[in-house]
UniProtKB/TrEMBL annotation:
<comment type="similarity">
    <text>Belongs to the tRNA methyltransferase O family.</text>
</comment>
<dbReference type="Pfam" id="PF01980">
    <property type="entry name" value="TrmO_N"/>
</dbReference>
<dbReference type="InterPro" id="IPR036413">
    <property type="entry name" value="YaeB-like_sf"/>
</dbReference>
<keyword id="KW-0808">Transferase</keyword>
<dbReference type="InterPro" id="IPR036414">
    <property type="entry name" value="YaeB_N_sf"/>
</dbReference>
<dbReference type="InterPro" id="IPR023370">
    <property type="entry name" value="TrmO-like_N"/>
</dbReference>
<dbReference type="InterPro" id="IPR040372">
    <property type="entry name" value="YaeB-like"/>
</dbReference>
<dbReference type="InterPro" id="IPR023368">
    <property type="entry name" value="UPF0066_cons_site"/>
</dbReference>
<keyword id="KW-0489">Methyltransferase</keyword>
<dbReference type="GO" id="GO:0089715">
    <property type="term" value="F:tRNA (L-threonylcarbamoyladenosine(37)-C2) methyltransferase activity"/>
</dbReference>
<keyword id="KW-0949">S-adenosyl-L-methionine</keyword>
<dbReference type="Pfam" id="PF18389">
    <property type="entry name" value="TrmO_C"/>
</dbReference>
<protein>
    <submittedName>
        <fullName>tRNA-Thr(GGU) m(6)t(6)A37 methyltransferase TsaA</fullName>
    </submittedName>
</protein>
<dbReference type="InterPro" id="IPR041369">
    <property type="entry name" value="TrmO_C"/>
</dbReference>
<feature type="domain" description="TsaA-like">
    <location>
        <begin position="11"/>
        <end position="152"/>
    </location>
</feature>
<dbReference type="GO" id="GO:0032259">
    <property type="term" value="P:methylation"/>
</dbReference>
Length: 241
């Protein structure tokens, strides 16, 4: 039997997700690790129709299928080096959750928060996503615990969630946060949860000397330092300033 190669498939984005993650650096590596992060999907016509979502509030969790749009032009390779293996061991692309993959599709379970309609715009609020701001969403499906949850499943080289790293804030950073954020407590919890995931590249996290980094969350630029297994937020500024 001969196999004919099928024609390429094109996808139509349903909408775009808006998240606090304005750059790739420091986005959690999987969903559910930072439940403080809330995102909003805004839909385009013809999906901007409340009927498309009827009954969705009965599900606590949803699958999002999306496009890794920011790395599309970099293509893919048969093997990748997952950060969980220290970034120097190769596995097959299909044995990984790498962003560099054929078709560039991502898959994340997120928590349903709410569904709203405002001036004809339908939006879906979700929690705990691992998606860059502006990511195109290509499908949404309810998460079915009886079919999708496998508590005894083998997780290969990523069998456990990463151990959180302790994060503290300097006195200056706390003052800046109070001045710059309309909801400083919420923002502090978000920053803490994001940094506790230790966003340092694998090769840098093995270095013991102090290192400085910055991440962007919402409209804030957050400066932080790491030394061995500790992280300190040392300064916060408004990006629009
Ligand atoms: N849970 C999804 C999956 O398994 O398909 C994504 C896993 S992937 C390892 C998560 C990372 O993708 C994030 O840490 C972020 O760096 C990156 N990412 C998220 N949204 C992206 C986008 N739109 N374009 C490129 N990279 C993105």
């Amino acid at each position: 039997m001969t196999t004919t190669e099928p024609a390429p498939i094109s996808l139509q984005p349903l909408g775009i997700i808006h998240t606090p993650y304005k750059q790739k650096f420091a986005i959690p590596r999987q969903p559910g690790l930072v439940s403080e992060a809330i995102g909003e999907i805004r839909f385009f016509s013809p999906f901007n129709d409340i009927n498309c979502f009827r009954g969705i509030e009965q599900f606590s969790h949803l699958w999002l299928l999306f496009r890794f749009h920011q790395v599309q032009e970099r293509g893919w390779k048969p093997t990748v080096r997952p950060p969980r293996l220290g970034g120097n061991q190769r596995v097959g692309v299909f044995a990984s959750r790498s962003t560099h993959r054929p078709n560039g599709l991502g898959l994340s379970v997120v928590e349903f928060v709410s569904l709203k309609t405002d001036k004809g715009q339908v939006s879906l609020q979700v929690r705990g996503m691992d998606l860059l701001d502006g990511t195109p969403i290509v499908d949404i499906k309810p998460y079915l615990p009886y079919a999708d949850a496998h508590p005894g499943a083998a997780g290969g080289f990523a069998s456990q969630a990463p151990q959180p790293v302790p994060v503290r804030f300097s006195a200056d950073a706390m003052i800046q946060l109070e001045q710059l954020s309309p909801e400083p407590d919420k923002m502090q919890r978000l920053i803490q949860a994001v940094l506790a995931q230790d966003p340092r590249p694998a090769y840098k996290s093995s270095q013991s000397r102090p290192q400085s980094f910055a991440i962007r969350l919402d409209n804030l630029n957050i400066h932080w330092q790491s030394e061995q297994n500790r992280i300190e937020v040392v300064g916060i500024e408004n990006i629009c300033a």
